[in-house]
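Section 5: illustrative case.
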């Protein structure tokens, strides 16, 4: 398991429920992101500049949805390669 007991990796729907997917200040405030970048091709990219967090929703086979923070905004994306190393965030199961 990737998350501790009582916690889950959020789905795309749960990720979007943080708030409007328009980069609003409320959306960013509720998430309070820590910027870890991502790992791909044996290199760490955008460390301390961008944040990337997987969610549990698959998109088109080898792709996944993820939450992306850059330029002071949060966005949901659907083009994450399952071979990239993104951070995870766990939420309490309801």
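Designed sequence:
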């Amino acid at each position: 398991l990737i998350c501790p007991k009582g916690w889950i990796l959020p789905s795309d729907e749960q990720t979007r429920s943080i708030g409007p997917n328009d980069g609003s200040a409320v959306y960013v405030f509720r998430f309070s992101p820590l910027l870890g970048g991502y790992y791909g091709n044996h290199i760490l990219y955008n460390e301390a500049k961008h944040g990337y967090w997987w969610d549990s929703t698959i998109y088109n086979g080898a792709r996944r949805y993820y939450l992306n923070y850059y330029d002071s905004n949060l966005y949901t994306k659907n083009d994450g390669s399952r071979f990239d190393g993104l951070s995870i965030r766990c939420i309490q199961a309801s």
